[in-house]
Amino acid sequence: MKPKLGFSMTLAIPFRICTPQFISYKCKPLSVVPFQNIPGLKRRTFHKGSTSCSAKQMDQVSKVGKKRNGDLLRGKVFVVGDNIDTDQIIPAEYLTLVPSVPEEYEKLGSYALVGLPEKQYPIRFVEKDQLHTTYTIIVAGNNFGCGSSREHAPIALGAAGAVAVVAKSYARIFFRNCSATGELYPWESKEYLVNHFRTGEEAEIDFGRNVIRNLSSKKEFELEPLGDVLPVVDAGGLFEYARKSGMIPKQS
Amino acid sequence: MNTCQYILAFSNNTFVSGLFYSVKKPLRNQDILFGKRNGGSLLKNNRHAHGFSSSSVRIKGTNHSVFQPVTATVAPPKSHRHVSTSLSNSVQQPMTLTEKILSKAANRPYVKPGENIWVNVDVLMTHDVCGPGTIGIFKREFGENAKVWDPEKVVIIPDHYIFTADQRANRNVDILREFAREQNIKYFYDIKDRQNFLNNPDYKGVCHIALAQEGHTRPGEVLFGTDSHTCNAGAFGMFATGIGNTDAGFILGTGKLLIKVPATMKFVFHGDMPDYLLAKDLILQVIGDISVSGATYRTLEFSGDVIAQLSMEERQTLCNMAIEAGGKNAVIPCDRTTREYLKGKTQRSFEVFQTDSNAHFYSHREYITHHLEPVVAKPHSPDNRDLAKNCSSVKVDRVYIGSCTGGKTEDFIAAARILKDRQVKIPTFLVPATRQVYDDIYRLSIGGQTLAHIFEQAGCIGPAPPSCAACLGGPKDTFARINEPLVCVSTTNRNFPGRMGSKEGQVYLASPYTAAATALTGFVTDPRQVYDFDKQHRSAYSLVDSFV
To answer: What sequence ranges are listed for the domain Aconitase A/isopropylmalate dehydratase small subunit swivel (chain A) (predicted)?
Structure first.
């Protein structure tokens, strides 16, 4: 079933809209693009101004499978408290966005942690009108990710640009979804770290030594090893891990 | 040899069974835990479960060996691991109800908490919010033309964002429809005419209540749903829990899932159920006692005389909020009440399990039920419990009666009991969970007056078309959504900031009696303040005139 597009073309360009085939888009007519100006057909945005018709690929918008380079992960820290539930991570009104559609995946990222009350969190995780966050690491207290089973929660955080969460403890479905999607490294801290970091400070997680270091205060804190979760997130989630480790055949 | 079989082979590999697990100590300790622990090890005796068959079959033309699906439980020998060889148990070890269900689903005579097992799935449920994502993953991983493992075991129930102009929400229902058509899904409760929901013969409404009403919740079975309140179905003596899209996509292709056996926390309710209490008060009591992470990764098993006297709808309310304590699942044993409810709803036979009297429990909590009082969960957490009577100075802007937790037929009977011949002082929104509940509101009567008429006379708003509606906010045009800083008393299940819409909204969770009482006064109100309850507990159906 091909997506339905309303457009007129004078050139027979055999392009492929790289979005799920069962979604039909109602696009405004395309302006004709000369064939030679479309170097990689799959990667072009064919339509100006309307995101619903652009042909983005998941690997343009997602870093799943490529979340870290080497054992040291350095970046700014965003600190939250206990019981940060999925409604605060991604409010329910944004759940109409389907994460397997690249444009909607990006949009999900822009709403990550938008549910945090402004009074307690005047510094926002994603600035207004931005698609991405400047914070790589989230430091949290207990029961991070409690509430709903929605995978949109770890996906929104990952899509925004977060790479790791360092929490004292997790809610079970959220933790499971982190590795299944490959979106976040769900580190568990041995101590309660919320008071040892401030939003905006730089930190570095050492994947080899299982520690997080606050680069401002120079203090180091131990983390529980990720164990078998690590290669799954490295690979890019449950299915990717299965393919990369030779368990299931690679897609042709 | 298709992808599904490869996935099964992969899934049967013992190394891979450690996939989801964070190993607390170095691997040499072989201490594999699923996910995260809360406050210490939840496994007192952490035995290592390897129930995978070591027989393998070489596939022609490939280098792959395929492990047979799990039926035997002989573990591959490993010197530094403790090997559990369940087949050698000639005497049956005691198990809890949940453990028995899971051992059956895993084709093993015995499982214990902490073991990672592959279970066969009896029902997979999804809805309009998570269905499209799940379908996307299924197609991406198993192929565009892949078929689900069993089109009669997938139940697709649009219910979350239905009565809205939001185009993406509407598109998501279209996606479900297309998938149901292409896969020949037997149970798809479609809606096309949003202007008049009565025009949709198949549409049911809120997924968890629809599952029960349509006979998909059967004792002894394993149900996964892409929704956290799937634990609702534990009321039927089955294993039911919520999962994410990736896990659900995996099940669509294989019909199996890798899970860890949860430890069981026992909650026994003794004594008499006062007439002014409902199951919602009991579960809010429990969550207030153990906190929102008090049951993380564990089963909540409810028993006792009081539980045995609860109706199936009340049992669902109790199990529904297990997730609010972090619980993996909740369970109430099947009994005569369960069988009565299921009569006429399902033709299938089912297996009834009971917890062994000498089974091991993680914890044991007893309640003298007639010592309990109506409670609320104050903003902004389901464990922020207080007695309703302590909150009587809290001015309330609106009341919401709805959702899988508090929008069933008996919840509306309870509300009507309080509101009969009286007027609400504040906007009171009514959202029946399903079409059947909606019909019941117009059919059942108290003292000669239908519930619908009682609500109308009282000045309530609704009943609205059945769906999840404002329980979780939703698109901005959702019925009863909180769009400003308002105080709302609600029969729903969560009250974290922004849950029903505005981040400045303040949601108090309560029973239908407390919610209705609050509607009458405009302040958080203990129902005993405004209504003369009986000395004996009155079940909902003893309150209505008659029912067919």
So the answer is: 131-182
Count of C-beta atoms within a 10 Å radius of residue B545 = 11
Rounded to a whole number of angstroms, the distance from the CA of A2 to the nearest CA of chain B is 13
Q: Which residue of A has its CA nearest to B66?
A: A247
Contact call for B169 and A88, based on CB within 8 A: no
Mean pLDDT of all residues in B120-126: 98
SS (H, E, C) A134-194: CEEEEEECCCECECCCCCHHHHHHHHHCCCEEEECCECHHHHHHHHHHCCCEEEEECCCCH
Q: What is the average pLDDT across B93-97?
A: 96
Q: If DSSP codes are grouped into helix, strand and coil, which group holds residue B367? A: strand
Q: Is residue B510 within 8 Å of residue B372, measured between CB atoms?
A: no
Enclosing H/E stretch for B363: strand B363-368
Residues of B in contact with A83 (CB under 8 A): 292-293, 381, 496
Q: B359 in the Ramachandran plot: left (φ > 0), alpha (ψ -120 to 50) or beta?
A: beta
> Quick check: B186 and B166 in contact, CB under 8 A?
no
Beta bridge partners of B65: B58
Domains of chain B, earliest start first: 1-75 (no CATH), 119-258 (3.30.499.10), 263-371 (3.30.499.10), 376-547 (3.30.499.10)
SS3 A234: helix
Amino acid present at B185: I
Phi, psi of A127 (to 5 degrees): -65, 155
Is A225 within 8 Å of B25 when comparing Cβ atoms?
yes
* pLDDT > 90? residue A11: no
Q: Measure CA A205 to chain center.
A: 18
Give me the interface pTM, i.e. the ipTM.
0.73
Q: Taking every pair of C-alpha atoms in chain A, what is the biggest distance, in angstroms?
A: 65
The torsion angles phi and psi of A74, rounded to 5 degrees, stand at: -115, 145
The per-residue pLDDT for range A200-237, each reduced to its tens digit, is 999 999 999 999 999 999 999 999 998 888 999 999 99
The DSSP line for B368-380 is EGGG---EEE-TT
What share of residues in chain B are helix, strand, coil (percent, to 5)?
Answer: 35, 15, 50
Q: What share of chain A is helix, strand, coil (3-state, %, to 5)?
A: 25, 15, 60
- Residues A172, A173, A179, A183: what is their CA dihedral angle, to the nearest 10 degrees? -120
